[in-house]
Amino acid sequence: xxxxxxxxxxxxxxxECDLQGIVNNANYQHYLEHARHEFLLSTGAGFAELxxxxxxPVVARITLSFKTPLRSGDEFxxxxxxxxxxxxxxxxxxxxxxxxxxxxxxxxxxxVCVINGRxxxxxxFDRLFAPYLKxx
Length: 136
Fold this sequence. Notes:
Helix content is 23%, strand content 41%. It is of the alpha+beta class.
């Protein structure tokens, strides 16, 4: 079983589903982003405050593998791991349906930092994420 560094429990809302009655694929990115923002808050940094300081983490690439659909009312858990590759922070994010712990989605999100308008190394993130990071 995989050990995760952060978890966030959420619930599917009716308007997130398509005509088939399952969560529309685009909404999974919202779930993953919300989990990353909550993780960031848990380290002591807020997304808006970082922006005011000229530090903007941005997504460079996302890979999503859909496994089991979620439906309206399903509770689910976004689980997150983090590693660093060069200047990229790689978030390994999985979503599990809470009722049976069935894997709904596997995601890899690669993020970089834009500091004062330029792509760069974030010493702040390195410090905040140090307890969680493993170099690849």
